[in-house]
Amino acid sequence: MRIICATNNKGKISEIKEIFKGTDFEIVSLKEAGITHNTVEDADTFMGNAIKKAKEIYELTKTPALSDDSGLVVDALDGAPGVYSARFAGENATDSENIQKLLKLMEGKTNRAARFECSIALVLSDSEIITATGRCEGEITTSPRGEGGFGYDPVFFVKEYKKTFAEIPMEEKNKISHRARALKELMRVLKEKSII
Quick one: angle between helices 178-192 and 10-20, nearest 10? Predict the structure, then answer.
C-alpha cells in the first residue's frame, strides 16, 4: 500500500521510511508523489494540524496520507511555543532567532521543564483516521550546546543522556525522539487493527 507523507522534509521522510521498513507500505514524499500543496496550519493543537494536513492530501489524491505536527512545549511559558514552534520569533524566523527568543523568555525561570511533542495522523479512507502521539521529556538549557540536529535541539537537554539533542548522534536521537515514539505507537495500533 502506498502512503503519501505530507512533507518534503528529508529527515522526517527517512525516519518514517525506517520505521515502516519490512512492511507492505511504500512511503513517498509530496515531491515524489508530484504534489505541490501547502496546508495552512491554523489548528490550535498538534493533532489538529496533523489531521488537517493528512486529510487535505488524502482528498487531493484518494491515496492514504500520513502527516505529523510537532513542537516544543515549555511549562514555565504556559505551553509555548507549542504549535507556533517553527514561527515563534516571527513568520520566517530562523532556528537561531527562535532559540534566542526562547532563552530571553526563560531568563530567571527556575522551572525549566519542557518536552517535545509529536502528533501523527494517518488517513486511510474517507471514514478511517488513525492517530498516535509521542513525547520526549527534557529541560531548557541557559545557552545552546552542540552542533547537530535542528530547531530547538541545541537548548533541549535530555537527562538520561546528560546532553542536548544537538549533542546526541542522529541515530540515537531518532530512537528516543518524540516522532520516533509517535511512529512506534502508530505501528502498534496498525498491528493491533491487523492493517499491517
Answer: 40
Annotated active-site residue 69? The verdict is yes
d(C-alpha 149, C-alpha 56), whole Å: 29
To the nearest 5 percent, what fractions of the chain are helix, strand and coil? Answer: 40, 25, 35
Question: What is the rounded distance in angstroms from the CA atom of residue 115 to the CA atom of residue 179?
Answer: 12
**pTM of the shown model:** 0.91
CATH code of 27's domain:
3.90.950.10
The single residue of 24, 42, 44, 69 carrying the catalytic annotation is: 69
Calpha distance 174→18 (Å, rounded): 10
Residues 6+ apart with CB under 8 A from 78: none
Angle at 149 between CA 44 and CA 115, to 5 degrees: 40
Enumerate the β-bridge partners of residue 132.
Answer: 120
pLDDT in tens, 127-164: 999 999 999 999 999 999 999 888 999 999 999 999 99
Domain with 140, as residue range(s), is 2-192
